[in-house]
Amino acid sequence: MVHTKDFRKKQWKMLLVTMLCYLFFYTGRHNFGWAATGMAQALSIPYATIGWVSFCMLIGYSVGQLINGNLADRFSDRLMMTTGAYLSIFTNIAISFANSLYPIMVLWALNGYFQSMAWAPGGKLINNWWGQEERGKAFGFYTMAAGLSSVVTYFLSILLLAQGYEWRMLFRLPVLLLLLSATIFLILARDKPEQTVDQGETMASEQPAETWLTRYRMVLGNKRFLLTSLAFGFESMARYGLIFWVPVHYLGKNWKDSPEHIWVTFLLPVGMAVGALSFGLLSDTFFKRDRLKAIFVGMSASALISLGVYVLPGHNLLMGGVLMLLAGFFVYGPQACFWPLSPDMLGSKYTGTGIGFMNMCGYLFAAIGEPLLGHTIDITGNSQNIFLVIAVICLLSATIMFFIKYGPAKD
What is the value of pTM for the model shown? Predict the structure, then answer.
């Protein structure tokens, strides 16, 4: 890949505009954890049922990843991302007007599918513009944008709740920022270096030699990649366990009497964003592109931090803030190392299919974890216990990574 000054400028432009689009994607997904308490009270449903609502979205997202990852290797990444954004905005607003459980379940499942139209296509677009030697850095920035998306969503949700807005507004207002960023992305993004504004494009911008079935066979035939996807499943279960249930944990402590405690949760996504960029850069430098080792270190540390949150008393504001920051840093940072393993293990041609399959595994596991953690709170009566479960999940991810052999990257 030629690195002229003009091309370098375009490289960064494509990376930044993709990051901008994804920066606001979680306003249509991670808002649910903040709306969960108000929704449960308004609809008189237990937290286990709330967990099943989240399960529906994650299953929709998981199935969507399997489908849309493959489609990202066939169709325009730019058009797929923006279509998913606009449809997600519509379903969020529709949910805000729902008054019963089952319409919310259906709409939230559809929202999961629409949200899945972004990550793999965005990853494929970045892979088209960035070479193997800088993949860790590029995916680190991209994953950081996802982490910052949680920061934005947490901040807006806390702000709206603090101002007295009801849970329905969490589905209406934050997604307006996604509308703006997706439109900017639609105007400025280009799928690959050869494409220019004058050339135009169609949804089927490239006709690969392989069929969709061949692409799936290439992924399913790679045992190392399958094990890596399994480890990613446990990582995602732990990450979503924190993202979704930490707000529930803190909102259940009469947070209006001590509002400073709710802002401790804000450090969780901040740690995630910093961790994503840090692990992405470290995998290229300190770990010398041995991303498997970087993931093992991160998930082992994450297990210890989660155990620390479970053991230490929660009333210490400073300690709670530090642990939330570290929990986010280590549970999400390794994700920046997982994504480059798709082109590293499978080759660039199958990047979209690989990322989609891996993310499908991640959200399938996350979906299973949601009602499990919700049930844990219901039967124990103490949300503190979720951190013990998450520690075990992180340890499982680290153990799998320990037994995967590292091989040379290929393009």
Answer: 0.73
